[in-house]
């Protein structure tokens, strides 16, 4: 489960970097003060009235806007810097404590020799089970 979460997180961060560096255009067509069409990555469609007008009158009634949205050009890599003030006494104590021979010593598991219980009665005779 932890591996799945880390893969999803890394994928989301990669997509975040991709979309933050992506540049695109947004085209908008206005007829008077009314927005007729808005298009991303393409030219906005014009209204019917704009297509029927002669070319010299098109600029007065209708208008096109193109908005360019630019992404980041340079990614800044920074590393986290922090200063951890540890007292000298604590560092020396932890060094002495963890370097002691008993801390890292592994216990060797010893298997004792199995000593079966002593039976006072003969089970073959008791249960009358004999090999022929």
Task: Describe the protein.
The protein is an alpha+beta fold. The chain contains six helices and three strands; from the N terminus they run αββααβααα. It has helices at 2-20, 48-52, 58-61, 88-98, 101-104, 123-127; strands at 24-31, 34-40, 62-69. A three-stranded antiparallel sheet has the order 2-1-3. The radius of gyration is 41 Å and the shape is elongated. The two termini are 61 Å apart.
Mean pLDDT: 78
| Shape verdict | elongated
Contiguous runs where pLDDT drops below 50 for at least 5 residues:
none
DSSP strand tally: 3
Helix percent reads: 25-40%
Structure class: alpha+beta
Main sheet makeup: 3 strands, antiparallel
State the end-to-end distance: 61 Å
In spatial order, strands of the major sheet run 2-1-3
Q: Evaluate the radius of gyration.
A: 41 Å
Question: In DSSP terms, counting alpha (H) and pi (I) runs of 4 or more, how many helices?
Answer: 6
Q: What order do the SSEs take from the amino end to the carboxyl end, as H and E?
A: HEEHHEHHH
Tell me the strand percentage band: 15-25%
Short description:
The chain is α+β, with helices and mostly antiparallel strands and 132 residues long.
What secondary-structure arrangement, pairings included, does this model have?
Blueprint: H1 2-20, E1 24-31, E2 34-40, H2 48-52, H3 58-61, E3 62-69, H4 88-98, H5 101-104, H6 123-127
Antiparallel strand pairs: 1-2, 1-3
């Amino acid at each position: 489960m932890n591996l799945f979460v880390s893969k999803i997180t890394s994928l989301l961060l990669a997509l975040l970097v991709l979309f933050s560096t992506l540049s695109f255009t947004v085209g908008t067509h206005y007829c008077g003060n009314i927005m007729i069409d808005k298009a991303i990555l393409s030219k906005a469609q014009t209204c019917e009235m704009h297509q029927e007008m002669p070319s010299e009158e098109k600029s007065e009634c209708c208008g096109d806007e193109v908005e360019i949205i630019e992404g980041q050009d340079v990614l800044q890599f920074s590393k986290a810097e922090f200063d951890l003030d540890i007292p000298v006494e604590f560092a020396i104590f932890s060094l002495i404590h963890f370097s002691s021979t008993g801390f890292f010593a592994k216990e060797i598991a010893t298997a004792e020799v199995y000593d079966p219980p002593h039976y006072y009665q003969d089970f073959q005779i008791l249960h009358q089970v004999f090999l022929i």
